[in-house]
Design a protein that fits this description.
The chain is mainly beta. The chain is built from 2 helices and 11 strands. It is globular, with a radius of gyration of 15 Å.
């Protein structure tokens, strides 16, 4: 997950402000814009942290956000990687306070994915947002059930990954991906 990412990263800590996050999203965004009905009320945890809006200014594509999260999950941090001259990626890390279970959404202009499926995992090709994706799932070798979904749409590649538990279920995983706007 985030610990396996490369160097040159900027950690931006953020949490959701009080109140529930909207489950309904607006339509597709044509220009980079960080604020959607799904991100309203999202604010940084510390006064010196970057906001989603600042992360958007550092990213040449619209930052998408899941409108549907498991109960209790909150945005914990935002990671922006890459250089201004090269490819950029942004990772949104969600978690449920008091639990180790996380959900990560990475968006970039590079091809997503994995090259080898470990023996204890399976690979399927579900349709996500109208395109064929790759879903790898199974025991990650650490005793956790891992879900990893990769797809590309509109010149942006998406990788959604998480471990089952604390409200994140296999059945709820694809609906989270479908809710990303």
């Amino acid at each position: 997950m985030a610990a396996t990412k490369g160097r040159g990263r900027v950690w931006v800590w953020a949490t959701l402000a009080a109140g529930a996050m909207a489950l309904a999203c607006g339509g597709e965004q044509s220009a980079p814009q960080a604020t959607t009905p799904c991100t309203e009320g999202v604010s940084p945890a510390a006064a010196d942290s970057l906001s989603l809006e600042e992360a958007q200014r550092q990213t040449p594509f619209p930052i998408a956000y899941p409108c549907r999260l498991p109960t209790g999950f909150r945005l914990q941090r935002v990671l922006v990687e890459g250089s201004a001259e090269g490819s950029r990626s942004v990772t949104l890390v969600f978690g449920r306070p008091g639990f180790d279970t996380t959900l990560e959404l990475t968006e970039s202009q590079r091809e997503p994915g994995f090259t080898v499926v470990p023996p204890a995992m399976t690979l399927t090709r579900p349709t996500v947002q109208g395109v064929v994706g790759r879903l790898m799932e199974g025991d990650s070798g650490t005793g956790h059930y891992l879900l990893y979904l990769a797809w590309s749409k509109g010149g942006v590649s998406y990788e959604l990954q998480g471990t089952v538990g604390a409200g994140l279920t296999r059945q709820g995983f694809l609906p989270i991906a479908e809710s990303i706007r």
